[in-house]
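Field reference: sequence -> structure
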Amino acid sequence: MNYPPVRTKKDFVRRYMAGEFGNRPPTWNDLKTFLTYAKSAGNDWVGGLYHLRNRIASADTWFNLSAVEVEPMWNIALSMGYNPDDLYISQMAPTGNTLVQGELQIRDKGLELHGTYVKLPMRDALKESSFNMVGLQVTTMLKLYCDANSVEWINVLLELYPGHVIEFSCYNKSFGTVPRSNTVIWEVRNY
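Structure field:
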């Protein structure tokens, strides 16, 4: 059984927000929802870092925003021409705790990984230093760094979404919406 393919970034984000792809950082669909969360959380939200993300493939994204920087950055993004429907907000991942991250895909040679060990957000980390692995090397690396449930979930995604790229980051501690999981799925794409 295969799920419908992911055709656009907007389609992906809609399904991502619904939890279709597994573990992800806490994420808010829009600024109003984020501010409502912030108000209800009181001072608990202030010390965190956030990520203003985009529903447009390869478009701008803004990392490591303090809670009070989110709304001004949102407004700057709007002044740059982004539509409010293009933007959403996630809690920043603990990039300093990154073990491995990258893009997985099943291709002609089997399972392939374009990855990095650099402790930065993935887009920047892959530009700084990256490697390629295939087959058993990838399987062994995933089992070495990802918890067992995360490895199983990645395998399920690869099976349910043939031809898609699975973006993930694995950390040395639990993080995200799924308890006791050290691996976040950032994107499942076929566009």
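Note: The longest strand covers residues 98-107.
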